[in-house]
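User: tokens in, sequence out, please.
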């Protein structure tokens, strides 16, 4: 349930969180003297016995989560309350993201004379030696913040030639949703298909399923066009360029329908999302006003691997 609370709080607050200054203000109003906005800084592949391996031969990874490099570290630890501690989310291929189990170890690091706290997650199963076509996407989050996405894979582009086909309908008001990106269609300014390496826009199609099933929400399931309290709000698209944090768009999804196996299902489409050719993007989508939502993380780009050989520590204390 902590995943649900994190994602819901992120969704409802994210429209105000577009700059580091906004994030600092929000964190300070919640009682943190210095914000601890987590980001995945290191993903270390190994053979399951602690011996380092190339990515393609790894069976497990250790993940190091640091405070955001653009903000002050001041050696401030993350919240000690497990209910408020940072989460590390992992998505396997195009399945919805879930929290990495286990309790991370807090480590005090000093890099370039800057001392700060990190969280170390050890021995996370990510077996590329046995399943070389798999990809593992990691995102760290705390409170109203989702950090940058990190993709661990031999070839981490999202390949989904076969969409998830609904087997029927859920009930009228499912309490838990899987929010699946089904299509990312690259095109040019004239709406004509373009290869990923040349596309300047993408259209993104999202389907909603009852969590853990292939049952689509029913055709009359409605998302509000504006944020609402106590109801199902808009579907927001989260996007991150390369190693930037995830930020939410304004509500702009168009509701359409499609037919599969003789049944009609709803779909929400974000049209004409600008992208820069040759750059890497990560996408996710979430609706407001529902208790539990699990998003897929879709990576778009000609080379989608995460390169961060020398992660930067946070700023010195007081800056």
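Assistant: Sequence out:
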């Amino acid at each position: 349930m902590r995943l649900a609370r994190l994602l819901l709080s992120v969704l409802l607050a994210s429209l105000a969180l577009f700059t580091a200054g906004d994030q600092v203000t929000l964190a300070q109003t919640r009682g943190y003297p210095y914000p601890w906005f987590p980001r995945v800084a290191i993903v270390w592949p190994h053979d399951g016995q602690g011996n380092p391996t190339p990515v393609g031969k790894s069976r497990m990874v250790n993940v190091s989560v640091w405070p955001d490099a653009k903000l002050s570290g001041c050696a401030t630890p993350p919240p000690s309350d497990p209910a408020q501690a940072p989460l590390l989310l992992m998505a396997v291929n195009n399945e919805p993201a879930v929290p990495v189990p286990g309790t991370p170890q807090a480590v005090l690091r000093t890099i370039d004379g800057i001392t700060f706290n990190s969280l170390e997650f050890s021995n996370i199963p990510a077996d590329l030696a046995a399943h070389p076509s798999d990809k593992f996407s990691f995102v760290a989050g705390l409170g109203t913040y989702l950090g940058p996405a990190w993709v661990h894979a031999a070839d981490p582009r999202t390949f989904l030639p076969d969409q998830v086909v609904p087997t029927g309908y859920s009930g009228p008001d499912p309490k838990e949703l899987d929010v699946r990106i089904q299509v990312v269609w690259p095109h040019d300014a004239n709406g004509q298909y373009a290869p990923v390496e040349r596309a300047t826009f993408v259209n993104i199609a999202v389907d909603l399923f009852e969590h853990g099933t292939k049952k689509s929400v029913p055709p009359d399931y409605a998302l509000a066009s504006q944020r609402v309290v106590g109801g199902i709000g808009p579907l927001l698209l989260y996007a991150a360029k390369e190693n930037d944090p995830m930020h939410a768009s304004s509500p702009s999804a168009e509701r359409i329908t499609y037919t599969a196996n003789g049944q009609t299902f709803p779909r929400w489409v974000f049209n004409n999302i600008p992208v820069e050719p040759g750059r890497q993007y990560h996408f996710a989508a979430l609706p407001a006003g529902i208790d539990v939502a699990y998003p897929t993380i879709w990576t778009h780009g000609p080379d989608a691997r995460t390169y961060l050989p020398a992660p930067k520590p946070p700023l010195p204390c007081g800056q």
